């Protein structure tokens, strides 16, 4: 499972987690707001900003009946048609260049999720450095092959996918010529709950496919994302907005700037803490060893006096014999006069 570069930034287990701020439809159909979101993501320390490339017509049919209408009472988007939802949420294609240019100016990587072949061709004309495939498209093998054929790194969310689905997807990616792939554990509910996130899948998926695995996270807060890094996640993607109170199709489960900053900081701390399997004092702990407990003479005693619980104790600091020798030392006589506060050593017995 090798590290690789996206637009000059290394992604992999040997590097801090790659944090993606997903704008999605949180621009609320304002290019000015979209650019403000880019700036806020950069200021918060996100490494990349992702948008989505589609139109309502490339996503679905303009129908307001049956399966084309959202009736689910638990859905954030209940009472609208798929077509109208995508009309509201889509990012106008004429905005893409301005968004990507602003990302580059601010030192962030800008890229997108294409939803059909025309979107891939358009994004290629803008020379995006990598591609994301959404969970709902992770079984669209023609689309996946089209993206993989660009040879650019791919990030694929795995929401709802079975092991068999993922096997087909990974094979399609590799056979089409993409060498660098990251799968993202994802729960395709909005928002998702921690107990339905199952991030123990991350190391299993990584071992199963010998591939980098990250997290596309729809839970509230940053706790799940931080925990995922401890399980080996190399990439974390979270939806991002200026303020949830501003509304928008994805605002309810999006991070605000202060939360995104916390995500960047805490996931890097989690990654730094992994280290390696080690026991005993580290180099940094060597100076602390002297503050361990050890055996000390606690009363002035004369040569030949017996060591007792009254004049021998295990206390700090750690310059005397280890407390493991306490029972052995009790009842022994001292070889010379000893002052209170003297560390016990074998030559005193």
Automatic annotation (TrEMBL):
Pfam families: NeuB, SAF
InterPro entries documented for this protein: AFP_Neu5c_C_sf, Aldolase_TIM, PseI-like, PseI/NeuA/B-like_N, Pseudaminic_synth_PseI, SAF, SAF_AFP_Neu5Ac, SAF_PseI/NeuA/NeuB
Residues of the AFP-like domain: 294-349
Designated name of the protein: N-acetylneuraminate synthase
Entry superkingdom: Bacteria
Organism of origin: Tumebacillus permanentifrigoris
GO biological process, one term: carbohydrate biosynthetic process
Cited SMART domains: SAF (SM00858)
GO molecular function terms noted in the UniProt entry: N-acylneuraminate-9-phosphate synthase activity
């Amino acid at each position: 499972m090798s590290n690789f570069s996206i637009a000059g930034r290394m992604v992999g287990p040997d590097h801090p987690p790659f944090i993606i701020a997903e704008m999605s439809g949180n621009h609320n159909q304002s290019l000015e707001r979209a650019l403000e979101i880019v700036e806020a993501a950069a200021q918060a320390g996100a490494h990349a900003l992702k948008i989505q490339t589609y139109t309502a017509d490339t996503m679905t049919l303009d129908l307001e009946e049956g399966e084309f209408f959202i009736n689910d009472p638990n859905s954030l988007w209940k009472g609208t048609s798929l077509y109208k939802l995508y009309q509201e949420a889509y990012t106008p294609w004429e905005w893409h260049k301005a968004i990507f240019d602003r990302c580059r100016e601010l030192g962030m990587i800008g890229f997108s999720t294409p939803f059909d072949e025309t979107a891939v061709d358009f994004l290629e004309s803008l020379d995006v450095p990598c591609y994301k495939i959404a969970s709902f498209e992770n079984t669209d093998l023609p689309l996946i092959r089209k993206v993989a054929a660009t040879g650019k790194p791919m990030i694929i969310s795995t929401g709802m996918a079975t092991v068999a689905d993922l096997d087909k997807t990974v094979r399609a990616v590799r056979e089409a010529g993409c060498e660098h792939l990251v799968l993202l554990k994802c729960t395709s509910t909005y928002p998702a709950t921690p107990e339905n996130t199952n991030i123990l899948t991350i190391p299993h998926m990584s071992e199963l496919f010998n591939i980098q695995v990250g997290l596309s996270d729809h839970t509230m807060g940053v706790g799940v994302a931080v925990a995922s890094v401890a399980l080996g996640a190399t990439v974390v993607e979270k939806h991002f907005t200026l303020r949830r109170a501003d509304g928008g199709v994805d605002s309810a489960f999006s991070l605000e700037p202060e939360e995104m900053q916390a995500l960047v900081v805490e996931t890097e701390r989690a990654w730094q803490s992994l280290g390696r399997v080690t026991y005993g004092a580290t180099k940094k702990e060597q100076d602390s060893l002297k503050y361990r407990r050890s055996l000390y003479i606690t009363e002035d005693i004369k040569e030949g006096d017996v060591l007792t619980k009254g004049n021998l104790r295990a206390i700090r600091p750690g310059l005397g014999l280890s407390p493991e020798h306490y029972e052995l030392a009790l009842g022994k006589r001292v070889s010379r006069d000893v002052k209170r506060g003297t560390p016990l050593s074998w030559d005193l017995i």
